[in-house]
Amino acid sequence: MSLTKTTIFWTLRALTCAPIAILSSCGPDDPEPVGTQAPPSTLSEGQSSDLNILATTESDPDLMDLDPLKDGWDSEHLSSLAGEQLKKLAEVFESSGFSDQSKLPKIFTDEVDCNSLRPLDLKNVLPDEDTTVLRPSSFPITAAKVSLSNCFSALTSSAPADGERYAKFKIIGITPIEQGFQSTQLVSLNIRNGTSAWEQNATWNIAWKRNGSESPLINSLKLEEFEEIHSATKGVWFSDQTASVFSKETEISIATGQFGMGIGEWTERLNDYLLVMQYGHNGLAVGDVNGDGFEDLYRCQTGGLPNRLFLGMPDGTLRDYSREAGLDFLDNCRGALFIDLDNDEDQDLVLAMPLQVVFFKNDGSGKFEIATQIDQQNVYSLAAADFDHDGDLDIYTCVYYADEEIRAELPIPMPIYDAKNGGQNALLENDGNWKFTNITKATGLAVDNSRFSFAAIWEDYNNDGYLDLYVVNDFGHNNLYENKGGHFQHITEQSGTRNGTFGMSASSADFNHDGWMDLYKASMFSSAGNRVVTQEQFLPTAAPAIKNAMFQMAQGNTLFTNTGEGSFRDDGIAAGVSMGRWSWGSIFMDFNNDSWEDLFVTNGFVTGRNPNDL
């Protein structure tokens, strides 16, 4: 395999799927949290920015040979060796914990140098009576040398004795040293039972000693970052209530027979012509459609399965109302919005269908009929706002793929760090009487409008009374458009929001209570990308700007702090909210009612039949 293809493979390799991440906000004055790994100070200088990163030749007998040693990628080979050893440590934790030294795997040298992996100077930074979040009082962390047995027994001394255990090591850096190599890894240890939850997130530095062809051994262990969370009295904050919500026979059959099956199983059962998409991307909408004071739920499903409208009942259960409402479509619907489009004080519905955006009028009782439709393909999500202050809601559509003629010429996003061959988003102005006009170009939103857009949010970031537009794109940077009285100016570069990642979703909140709305973007974290992109042989002829762009794509989620001066600062790594694994949805929400906005992030990827890969 050529050097170019190997490096791209390792950079974009799918990272392991993981559970939902909940990131608690503790206020602006807390000490620096875990997850603050700094990027390398310098990336290799290059001679040219003109680079085809997918260059190949017709004759390539080793095309599918992914052995990194064949291309000189020692870092990936060493990462694989270290990963196999750390997997043994994870298995011990998951089976019985670290209290018994005799059960520790034989992966340490006799003279191993071990610093304490759980600091003594921990303080609680979350003022919540049910949950404790412990972080070191000072940085850098000072840890005393201890014996190997004390090192690991003390690590989990505060953990519950029983429960379901989970351990994960993600190696984010490899550096050669004398007689071996050094690895930097993110460490996640979790224990859950019926009444409590315990979690540690840390960064370890490990020096490995090599002895010929034998597996490397750990020669020293040092702690760089640390955070510990455990519930106090009431156990976990959230519990699965699906069974109680879908309590009647009809609804239970839907929940188990449709929602209970993964998208992978539907791709095996439904015809491709029904647009069964393996990645999902089907919309949800919440609103009171029948005016009874209870929120109702509309769930879009993949092509071939009926969309479902569930009415919220007074007893907290849901009743299927899909057919009666006239909304049980079999189309593969991407986005959905419940909003009042005709100002009659009931919730109408907008659906992003495969070939059209369809507007449904609510008769006031929760029954819908098509009011109008606009031809537009590949719409993935919808965002509504009265951007021009004329008293009605307008719609912004995010379009991922370009039309067929463009895709026929260049079917994949290129270049992957700044792709501009995506679809064209549209601003649809509400003219009243269910008429909508595409005013994208007239309002200035056609600038830089050919990216792979996943999501958009309306937010007044500069407190001038007009809602601005923030668009999150895949395979490149976001777009921020400032609303100047109904006309938009593309200010991404000067605002400091030109962060280029695999953007999936966005949300906003004043998380630090300074009076200015901040932005959060969910994207993809790749430990392989962190390792590979920092190596000298990665894209050796590329300009530093390209290499930095590629490195940024592996860094994960982004928290843009609003400075209040017309610009934003990227605080994702410093705030400990960048490593969300492969993130999709994200939302600010104060789930413990302490007045600080927390973050709820969903993550993962295509799941196989083995439930342990989540």
Give a brief rundown of this model:
With 614 residues, the chain is of the alpha+beta class. The strands form eight sheets. Strands 2, 3, 4, 5, 6, 7, 8 and 9 form an eight-stranded mixed beta sheet that branches. A four-stranded antiparallel beta sheet has the order 10-11-12-13. The longest helix is centred in the first third of the chain and has 23 residues, at 74-96.
Low-confidence stretches: 1-22, 24-57
Measure the end-to-end span. Answer: 31 Å
Q: Can you give the helix content as a percent range?
A: 10-25%
Q: Note the beta-strand portion.
A: 25-35%
SS-derived structural category: alpha+beta
User: What is the oligomeric state here?
Assistant: single chain
Q: Give Rg in angstroms.
A: 26 Å
Mean pLDDT score: 83
Question: How many beta strands in the DSSP annotation?
Answer: 33
Number of helices: 11
Q: What best-fitting shape do the alpha-carbon axes yield?
A: globular
Largest sheet composition? 8 strands, mixed
Structure description:
With 614 residues, the protein is an alpha+beta fold. Helix content is 15%, strand content 32%. It contains 11 helices and 33 strands. Strands 2, 3, 4, 5, 6, 7, 8 and 9 form an 8-stranded mixed sheet that branches. Strand 16 and strand 17 form a beta hairpin. Helix 1 packs antiparallel against helix 10. The longest helix has 23 residues, at 74-96. It is globular. The model is unreliable at 1-22 and 24-57 (pLDDT under 50).
